[in-house]
């Protein structure tokens, strides 16, 4: 969530569009229900783009080669541990147009099966994370609530382009420094 809010505060036009979508879809309701989430396609695109640009972990769970194989032109001996760099794959310019840019629209009308080898925040194949649906629904619900109930800004007149996006390397991909925002309750009409 912290990375989603980081990208939204850095891109006010994207946040504005997402808030308009959420507030229009909910039309003054006080509580977001699970059925409301399916009416928020732009929010879903923002979450996918956040997971692409800032995956939960830089590497997938290691694989173990049972036999000697050729992989990407390299010989991988039997018994080798193979690490998959999800961060690099999801920022590969040959797979993603303007890979360094935060563009939720890149997921508009995309069949996820067509990008299953380049969009891997939850892994893939037989070893895909079994919690993918729970994770996505949780993110959609939390982000929808944050955007619906509050308007957001940076403290002290800070500008969006001044937001620090330095990552701390580790098992999970987190911000090196905390994100500090000012939340103002949204006034329902």
TrEMBL record:
Its cofactor is heme. Keywords: Heme, Iron, Metal-binding, Monooxygenase, Oxidoreductase. InterPro entries: CYP450_71D, Cyt_P450, Cyt_P450_CS, Cyt_P450_E_grp-I, Cyt_P450_sf. The keyword Heme applies. Gene3D superfamilies: Cytochrome P450. The keyword Metal-binding applies. Heme binds at residue 129. Pfam families: p450 (PF00067). GO terms for molecular function: heme binding; iron ion binding; monooxygenase activity; oxidoreductase activity, acting on paired donors, with incorporation or reduction of molecular oxygen. It comes from the Eukaryota. Belongs to the cytochrome P450 family. This is Premnaspirodiene oxygenase. The lineage of its organism: Eukaryota, Viridiplantae, Streptophyta, Embryophyta, Tracheophyta. The gene is CYP71D55.
